[in-house]
Amino acid sequence: MLEGQDIICIAPNPWDDIWRRRHQLMSRFARGNRVLYVEPARFILFALLNRKGLVSLLKGRFYSRQEGDNLFILSQYLMLPFEQTGLRRGSSVIKRINDWFCIAMLKGTLRRLKFKKPILWVYYTSRSGDFVGKCGEKLVICDVFDRYAAFPYNRNDPWLKQFIDREDANLIERADVVFASSELLHTHCQGFSENVHLVSNGADTVLADSVPVSPADTANIPHPVLGYVGGIFDKLDFDLLRHLAEEHPKWSILMVGPTGAASEEDEKRISSLREKGNVFFVGSKHRKELPGYYETIDVALMPYELTEHTDHIFPLKMFEYMAFRKPIVSTDIPAARQFPGIISIAHSREQFAETVSQLLGDDNGSRIQQGVAIAQQNSWDQKVKDISQVIRDCLHERGISLSP
Q1: Do 272 and 242 meet the contact criterion of CB atoms below 8 Å apart?
Q2: What pLDDT was estimated at residue 266?
Q3: How distant, in Å, are the alpha carbons of 76, 79, 207 from that of 12?
Q4: How much is the average pLDDT of 378-402?
């Protein structure tokens, strides 16, 4: 694994959010490297309303905390509001002021932590490209895990979709190395870079092998239990889940994860689902609690809507479901098609229900063992090793020393 490096990660979500690809990778890189995880910027009013945030600003100490020996978290703030409003009207003044402030915060933190010749690891945010070339970095890595412009709440906003497409392409073009999490994303990125590597999401196999602790909020849920673990957002087919709940009232549907609606229509669908007596929303859980919830689940669900967005995803839960030894049923997304015989694919609501019924009645031992073997081959530890080799090769080809 890569060791002895200083890594700056420009992230699209806070560190304390549900764990995603960036959390899995950066927590592992921090075992042998120093990592500064830069959270997305918020309006400075949030800092002034928070005692710790206000104190840190007054002292000029912008990183809010340290996680372990080698992982630092930088909480950034925007000086001025209405940045996007200005851009929509053709003015970049507010954005330039906010960019200056964010870059100054980052540079001050780098000096304080004594980061030297860091690797700049960027995910798409509206500000990521502004950090490139400003950190004294020896290498720029862009990690692409979504087709951002295809998010449902972006598709209906032509200006925003065009802005995201342009910024996304620009970020990929400026990176020295690009990693993509799915085959379609890999193809997309190849349109803007010649150094693109396919590295899918992985599985926390150590967590999957840990001893589960039965959670109190699932103790009274009757079996069989169909389970979904992850963000409960607009990429899910809520009508499909409602169909399962209504047509099979003796099945319990367990929804584990944070809930968010991008539209009033989605909010109504989620609310309608909550009203079902056999659907159980238990909220977001710490990753260490997940084994107990997986222990409750009889069949794992991947109930995605079929859209341009979900065409490009490689669900985090796919290898995770396999690692936790669960039979899986999915809608027909491209990523699921890669594992015939392990993931059962349904092409309609009726077929989805029929497939669940079949999995509940079958002996799934063979498919589960195949899934466990694939998950072990695709552990997050292995992904970090694969990525580390690509980084070392790139630095060697460019004649850049691994020494900080």
Answers
A1: yes
A2: 83
A3: 12, 19, 25
A4: 94
pLDDT tens for residues 5-21? 999 999 999 999 999 99
CB 329 within 8 A of CB 356: yes
Report CA torsion sign: 54, 55, 59, 65: negative
Asked if 254 and 230 count as a contact pair (C-beta separation under 8 A), the reply is no
CA-to-CA dists, residue 330 to 312, 339, 360, angstroms? 15, 11, 15
Within 10 A of 302 (CB to CB), how many other CB atoms are there? Answer: 23
Residue boundaries of the structural domains of the chain:
6-202+380-397, 205-377
Whether 6-202+380-397 and 205-377 share one fold: the answer is yes
What would the mean pLDDT of 321-335 be, rounded to a whole number? 98
Q: Residue 332: pLDDT band by 50, 70, 90 thresholds?
A: very high
Query: In which band, very low, low, confident or very high, does the pLDDT at 401 lie, cut at 50, 70 and 90?
Result: confident
- CATH for the stretch 205-377: 3.40.50.2000
Least Cα distance to 206 among 134, 327, 126, 291 occurs for 291
Q: Which CATH architecture describes the domain 6-202+380-397?
A: 3-Layer(aba) Sandwich (3.40)
Q: Which residues, 6+ apart, have CB-to-CB distance to 139 below 8 Å?
A: 119, 120, 176, 177, 391, 394, 395, 398, 400
Write the CA distances from 268 to 26, 255, 273, 283, integer angstroms: 36, 17, 9, 18
pTM of the complete model = 0.93
Amino acid symbol at 232: I
Residue matched to tokens 């999995």: 359
Any idea which residue has 């107990």 for tokens? 292
What's the DSSP call for residue 221?
Answer: P
- Encoded tokens for 63: 């990183």
What's the pLDDT tens digit per position in 126-179?
Answer: 899 999 999 999 999 999 999 988 887 777 889 999 999 999 999 999 999 999
Report the b/e string of 181-197 with b at 16+ CB within 10 A: bbebbbebbeebbeebb
